[in-house]
Specification:
Chains A, B: Its cofactor is pyridoxal 5'-phosphate. Chains A, B: The modification N6-(pyridoxal phosphate)lysine is found at residue 219. Two copies of one chain form a homodimer. Chain A is an alpha/beta fold. Chain A has helices spanning 5-8, 13-16, 46-57, 59-64, 72-82, 94-106, 123-130, 172-181, 235-245, 255-266, 268-291, 313-322, 346-360; strands spanning 33-35, 89-92, 113-116, 134-137, 157-160, 187-190, 211-216, 229-233, 295-296, 303-307, 325-327, 339-342. In chain A, helix 5 (72-82) runs parallel beside helix 10, helix 6 crosses helix 9 and helix 11 runs parallel beside helix 13.
């Protein structure tokens, strides 16, 4: 939709320049195999459903009343599961909202913030939204982050680990190098995919007063439909996030979301088991696609980043779509010969492999 | 909690200055009568519970997948109920988030925005958050908005109608005066309480290209626990809100909230009936409190603003609290002799009246 200059006079001038984030599509097609937005192929813990039913059973008082603005029960459940203090936990409406608050709370500084040239494409959007200058640091030729590149003047650093869409993880020793090289800047480790085989920096929070770790329930806890994300950091950093949140929206997490997410964090056995299933399926899929000639970056995520030396990635994505399989294709420099493929169930992955084998390669 | 200068060096400088909003308290006390946050005393439509149960019945695919980022089903249900086009509807995580996006989308201008000196106390907080200059226009001696005061240079106007905490409503003719006097500025009418007897400006949207109307499901639809607010305006204004929202958080409304709110908007009969009950209870309560000597501003909201010539409002609030009844008291200039009292059920209101009569007056 385009509007006239006259109509646009009502917009705040800076809003006229915004280039919003474009999420992966959510098409409504029968028999679709949706491997494009890194959702979990398995349902959440059965305890989640029970928790929402309990809210409903008591619905009169539950729904007509505001939720706890601090979501204390949820923060406590996260603190218990992550082995941190409740004062080290911040929660928000999905990790996207948590990240937005992080950019406002820490990154409006004189120097530009640093992040990789290939990473979560919401970072430049937040930066523009808050008027934050950025410097994008190129990944090396293997699509890896070179932590030595993050030893330069900056106003803050954000690194996705494992990185997306590359799927490659840094080890904690490398994260510590970044933290130690930047003692006066906040270093954010965005761990949306950490539960599928990478090491979490949460265990470093007590030792680094400049570290913020961000996670989500959308992937490893199968709760993308619920919108709950969180950050772990020392209390002086959490307080900045609370000041921002309470200047924007007092009650971002509704009663269903609080109850459901608490139940998820309390069911550790289910969580560990489901993550393990995805990891095992990933290894099988990597083997099968490698056998078909794909080169696949070493993944610690619930997706893989794959390229085929003889086949154009954009064409492959289009051919798969014609067979009812959607993967994510980014038509951007350096990565326009790659497909980002979410790990499905073994049965779903087999459908992908068979379709590639018989229809496209 | 206070932090050292060294710890505060990590905060964005502007965030160190924020003075966040303080929501009404949500205490956990047995037998508490909570008349402090303008919640509805009645549960939401039974259809709401059925809708959430339907999401649960199909939980595997419902919760592991992201919700529709555009919440199209919800926008359509609102459009139907409000008799507008879906392109005239914006939805957000409570009207607080909708208002935050409104301030960003329209109010970052060269001239200060205008709003009453006594109104929703989140407006100065949003203004500080986005660096917006404000000019507060005093209510008259009867606590009324004088629309002639809004004919001066400005970067936008926001008026709560009925106003809070005063409860007094403007008529549509007065709203139109403001709209006509400010053809180049966005005029926002925040109608959180409109369904309890005031006239909605939604019917003016097709005639004014500078009008944004904001409403919530928290009060009249008994869904404070759910976090769904919305705005109605012409498409060139909705588009600015979408640009802001999609630069901040793609999926602010979860699957339960979408399903539950749709069900609420589809049950018009229940909605009309429950609003009428609150209005009737309000008139009874006004009579009873007037008989006890209170002066009460003329209310079109689900709360009243009451002062007693012989009793200090702060003391009354404290005495009521000791009896397990919480009302809202603002220790602020001009209104520090008033109590803001949410309308409860007739039984709850009677408990308030009896407690005042026997314990405090």
């Amino acid at each position: 939709m385009t509007f006239t200059t006259e109509q646009m006079r009502f917009w705040s001038p800076e809003v006229r320049e915004l280039e919003p984030y474009v999420p992966g599509e959510q098409p409504k097609i029968q028999n679709l195999l949706k491997l494009n937005t890194n959702e979990n192929p398995y349902p959440p813990s059965p305890k989640v459903v029970e928790a929402v039913q309990a809210v409903l059973a008591n619905q009169a008082d539950a729904l007509r009343l505001y939720p706890d603005p601090d979501a204390t029960a949820l923060k406590q459940a996260i603190a218990n599961q992550q082995h941190v203090d409740i004062a080290q936990v911040f929660v928000g409406n999905g990790s996207d909202e948590v990240l937005a608050h992080i950019f406002k709370a820490f990154f409006i500084q004189k120097q530009p913030i640093l992040y990789p040239d290939i990473t979560y494409s919401f970072y430049p959007v937040y930066s523009q939204f808050f008027g934050i200058e950025t410097k994008q640091i190129p990944l090396n030729d293997k699509f890896e982050i070179n932590v030595a590149d993050y030893q330069q003047e900056n106003g803050g650093i954000i690194i996705t680990n494992p990185n997306a869409p590359t799927s490659i993880a840094l080890g904690l020793a490398e994260i510590e190098q970044v933290l130690q090289a930047n003692p006066d800047q906040v270093v954010v480790i965005d761990e949306a995919y950490v539960d599928f085989g990478a090491e979490s920096a949460v265990q470093l929070v007590h030792r680094y007063d400049n570290l913020v770790v961000c996670q989500t329930t959308s992937k490893s806890r199968s709760l993308a439909g619920l919108r709950v994300g969180f950050a772990i950091a020392q209390p002086h950093l959490i307080a900045a996030l609370e000041a921002v949140k309470n200047s924007f929206n007092s009650y971002p997490i509704d009663r269903f979301a609080i109850a459901a997410a608490v139940a998820s964090f309390e069911d550790q056995a289910y969580f560990v088991q489901q993550c393990q299933k995805v990891i095992e399926s990933r290894e099988l899929l990597v083997n099968d696609l490698t056998a078909l000639g794909f080169n696949i970056l070493p993944s610690k995520a619930n997706f893989i980043f794959a390229t085929h030396p003889q086949h154009d990635a954009g064409q492959l994505a289009q051919q798969l779509r014609e067979q009812g399989i959607i993967v994510r294709y980014f038509n951007k420099p350096r990565i326009n010969q790659f497909l980002r493929i979410t790990i499905g169930t073994d049965e779903q992955n087999q459908r992908l492999v068979e379709t590639l084998k018989t229809q496209t390669l």
